[in-house]
Amino acid sequence: MNTADFDYDLPRELIAQHPPPERDAARMLVLDPLSDAVSHASIRDLPGYLDPGDLLVVNDSRVLPARLLGRRRDGGEAEVLLLRRVDGGGHRWQALVRPARRLEPGSQVRFDHSPLAISVEIRRGETAVVRLDGITDPLSEVRRIGEMPTPPYIRERLVDRERYQTVFAREEGSAAAPTAGLHFTPGLLKAIRDRGVNLAFVTLHVGLDTFQPVRVDDPSQHTIHREWFRIDKATANAVNDTRRRGNRVVAVGTTCVRTLESAAAGDGVRAGDGWTSLLILPGHRFQVVDAIITNFHLPKSTLLMLVSAFAGRERILAAYAEAIRERYRFYSFGDCMLITSPHPDASNARIGRVMS
């Protein structure tokens, strides 16, 4: 297995630059790995692909508008992207800083019309530990002046911040949206419930690795950064009851997949919270997830490798080629796909997981 095995060519014009007019307007490519069948639908058709008694699991993490654009002491521009808290008070954070070479320890970034000041304490490459000073409640000021941390391939400015939040977002802490959840509306969730499908919530705060490409030839040597997650007792019970009945656990997004698989215990999951550094590659034996709703992912990314582990690399790349031919919209604001079941060939060995 080589990182180059997960490459594909995407016409630039297929990278979605803005959300669709309506959240549930996305097209949905449906892939059945057991039959190799590919069909085309809409996310609004999702209830018809679910069975009564299935469980839909979503990530309720909320994105912090943590992209802060300011100036260094010398007047030059600086960007600080807050990733995760280092302390409980919200004053010290792990962050991405740019330009990193101009933001050595002791450097400070200030902001127009704001008392907030950010000082660099420790820096390793583009990652730093920074301190937020100048105000008692720094997070309130971050929410006021910060921008949504949309990925670098989105060049258009996001006018409505809430379009980068899911409708079920509750607990603030992500550095990027769990984008598969962006397609859901209250009406679609109601239609899913009316179908007899249950709904459960997990929390995983999307962090640094979302912004990190796989730079090594052997994907198993890639270092994936830890992300905090939680599964409460109600969700654990719902997952375990669903599996005991023989119904499906349907994960909305790769963040839900990693959360559920990180907490796998026997034929279900255990409740709790902790940090996961689970890297899911082909050969992973899925213990919890029976179907996935996911967006289309970047070449050579850990997320593309995850869905390849679920359905098989050749099937995923063939489905992506079909999506390109059919002019689907790709990435965060793009269309989605439903993978209805894992293929046995893609589930024959488990990679280790971390939960503490």
The average pLDDT is 92
What distance lies between the first and last C-alpha atoms, to the nearest angstrom? 29 Å
Major sheet: arrangement of strands: 2-1-19-18-14-3-12-13-17
CATH topology of the largest domain: QueA-like
Specify the CATH architecture of the largest domain: 3-Layer(aba) Sandwich
The count of helical stretches stands at: 7
- Described by the principal axes of the CA atoms, the overall outline is globular
Helix and strand topology:
Layout: E1 27-32, E2 37-42, H1 46-49, E3 55-59, E4 61-63, E5 67-72, E6 77-85, E7 92-98, E8 108-110, E9 117-124, E10 127-133, H2 138-145, E11 171-174, H3 186-194, E12 198-204, E13 227-231, H4 233-245, E14 249-252, H5 254-262, E15 264-265, E16 268-269, E17 272-276, E18 291-295, H6 302-311, H7 313-325, E19 336-339
Parallel strand pairs: 1-19, 3-12, 3-14, 4-11, 14-18
Antiparallel strand pairs: 1-2, 5-6, 5-8, 6-7, 7-10, 8-9, 9-10, 12-13, 13-17, 15-16, 18-19
Helix pairs in contact: 6-7
Protein described:
19% of the residues lie in helices and 28% in strands. The protein is an alpha+beta fold and 356 residues long. The strands form 4 sheets. A 9-stranded mixed beta sheet has the order 2-1-19-18-14-3-12-13-17. β5 and β6 (77-85) form a beta hairpin. α6 packs across α7 (313-325). Mean pLDDT is 92; it is low at 347-356.
